Amino acid sequence: MARRSKQMLVKLLQSKSVVEFGEIQEALAGASRSTVYRYLEQVPYRSSYNSNGRYYTLHDPAKYDRWGLFSAGAVHFSVDGTLKATVVRLVRESEAGWTQRELQDLLRVRVQLFLMAAVREGSIDRESVGRLFVYLHADPEVSRDQLSRRLEGIAEASRRLDAEVDDEVIIRILLVLLRYPGSTVDDVVRHLKGRVPSVRRASVDCVFARYGLGEKGGPRIY
After folding, report:
1. Residue ranges per domain, the chain?
2. What is the 3-state secondary structure (H, E, C) of 82-149?
3. pTM of the prediction?
4. In this predicted model, what pLDDT tens digit does every residue of 105-118 receive, in sequence order?
5. Cα–chain-centroid distance for residue 163?
6. Terminal CA-to-CA distance of the chain, rounded, Å?
7. Mean predicted lDDT score pLDDT of the chain
8. What is the pLDDT of residue 26?
9. Distance separating alpha carbons of residues 84 and 171, to the nearest angstrom
10. CA 172 to CA 56: how far, in whole Å?
């Protein structure tokens, strides 16, 4: 049996962008799980933050994108290692905070439980903005700056939408609500799908907000 060394593991990790645990055991001449972990401690690596951490990659700072993330197909890695640490870092480093949906879209996994745990522990904070929570730095001074930039972004987006949403678009959206009372924003988008000219979801959101419509296309009740 070949004598084991950490170079065996390094060679494997350098040869493939992603490996599974069984491949590591094989590269280390059938090593036990405890032996594999002992050798992993000797080399820079990251385990996937999805798929129950069953995939491994060589930790190379150059491979991560601007968010500190790296993906190989449906397998995702973070410079931080764990999903919890990744979520906290992204929130703390953000210019305008993150919503749960934004983080999920970026990380391509569910993050709600990790966000809630981080808020409970005081690692991050959150504020209600409209119908959504925005997750922010735990430091009040930093979070104020993040929230200010978030609100500025919302105001700018609203100004752009107001310019885009002309009377024709408004009439088309309101006609859908007359024909299908109680429709949600998603329902309206679906009913208008394929029509020419197209109506963007953001335009429907704008009309709902402008006319005080609730989530189901009726007057908002306070």
Report:
1. 6-78, 83-149, 165-210
2. CHHHHHHHHHHHCCCCEEHHHHHHHHCCCCHHHHHHHHHHCCEEEEEECCEEEEEECCHHHHHHHHHH
3. 0.74
4. 999 999 999 999 99
5. 29
6. 74
7. 90
8. 93
9. 45
10. 51
C-alpha distances (whole Å) from 72 to each of 54, 77, 110, 131, 164 are 13, 8, 18, 34, 38
Give the mean pLDDT of 34-52: 95
Dist. CA 67–CA 99, nearest whole Å = 16
What is residue 219's predicted lDDT score, i.e. its pLDDT?
Answer: 40
Q: Which CATH architecture has domain 83-149?
A: Orthogonal Bundle (1.10)
| Spatial separation of the C-alpha atoms in residues 72 and 16, rounded to whole Å | 10
Cis peptide upstream of residue 197 (ω within 30 degrees of 0): yes
Provide the CA 181 distance to its chain's centre, in angstroms: 33
Quickly count: other Cβ atoms within 10 Å of residue 188's Cβ: 25
Tokens of 203: 């335009």
pLDDT confidence band for 196 (50 / 70 / 90): confident
- Counting every residue, how long is the chain? 222
SS3 assignment, position 6: helix
Give every CB contact of residue 82 below 8 A, 6+ residues apart in sequence.
49
Write out the two tokens for 109: 């996994």
